[in-house]
Amino acid sequence: MIKVLFFAHLRDLAGVSQLEVPLGEMTHVRDLLQGLEPHVPKPLIDALSDQTAMVSVDHKYAGWDAPLIDNVEVGILPPVSGG
User: What is each CA distance from 63 to 14, 27, 31, 49, 76, in whole angstroms?
Assistant: First the structure.
């Protein structure tokens, strides 16, 4: 299982702060989008599809190409803009 945590407005789009999805055939964080589709509303999938959101794997920032293993925690955070 992969524990997925959503932050800020992405949590609002998901309708939940966290969920667990089976690892299945997912090998990288980018594959997580397909794994999330049956579990979250389409507006969240649309918001994540350009992969500009920041991700963390087990509390460390990672890229969308980071490998996934069973029992990992993935955080999904909205992109941050400076000012």
Answer: 21, 13, 12, 14, 11
Q: What is the pLDDT of residue 83?
A: 56
Q: How far is Cα of residue 60 from the mean position of the Cα atoms in its chain?
A: 13
CA distance 37 to 30: 12
Architecture label for domain 2-77: Roll (3.10)
* Residue whose tokens read 């941050």: 80
The reply to whether the predicted model has a pTM over 0.85 is: yes
Please report, for the chain, the start and end positions of each structural domain, with discontinuous segments joined by +: 2-77
Counted residue by residue, the chain has a size of: 83
Rg (CA), the chain: 12
